[in-house]
Design brief:
By secondary structure, this protein is of the alpha+beta class. Helix content is 42%, strand content 24%. Strands 1-2-3-4-5 form a 5-stranded antiparallel sheet. Helix 2 packs across helix 3.
Length: 173
């Protein structure tokens, strides 16, 4: 067996160590879409939206209403509900609406070996009086989630959204 030069025995393990140390971090960092302006999370915004939702739902049966929500209210309500669950797989949510799409970012925790930034882009639509969410793209860091998994994520989200809609018929978004 031929002995390797000293530089090979020192440099190759160092390069391998650097590659292992930095490679996954770069894959998990990725470029994320960002909200057009910072979205402040507050219990006040979450409470305002929750109150308006409850107020509209307790109105006269069959009564029509329009529910408007700001990016801050939706982000705050989602953040509050995630915090209530205690062991939520998502932290630091940011949700905003632009040009008919829903954008979201945050951190996945307790899902992968390290906390990882995630992004999602979805399109909502009304179908048979219910809101249906179609996931267009999702990624964990710079790694896109495969299309086959997107349909599963969409189905799970739509089941949750349907449970939340109670007996309300949605006519437009």
């Amino acid at each position: 067996m031929q002995k390797q030069p000293v530089w090979v025995r020192l440099v190759l393990p160092l390069l391998l160590l650097l590659g292992l140390a930095c490679g996954p971090c770069n894959l998990l960092a990725g470029d994320r879409p960002t909200p057009p302006r910072p979205i402040a999370v507050s219990t006040e915004s979450a409470g305002q939206l929750e109150s308006r939702i409850q107020q509209n739902l307790t109105g006269e049966p069959g009564q029509q209403f329009i529910l408007q929500m700001s990016d801050a209210e939706v982000t705050s309500l989602v953040a509050a509900k995630l915090a209530e669950s205690g062991d939520a797989p998502v932290t630091e949510p940011q949700i905003w609406f632009t040009k008919g799409k829903i954008y979201g970012t945050g951190k996945l925790v307790n899902v992968l070996p390290v906390a990882t930034d995630f992004t999602l882009v979805a399109t909502p639509r009304v179908e048979d009086g219910k809101v249906v969410i179609e996931m267009e793209e999702t990624s964990a860091g710079a790694v896109p989630i495969p299309d086959s998994l997107l349909s599963t994520v969409s189905q799970s989200i739509n089941e949750t959204v349907e449970e939340l809609q109670l007996d309300v018929e949605i006519t437009a978004l």
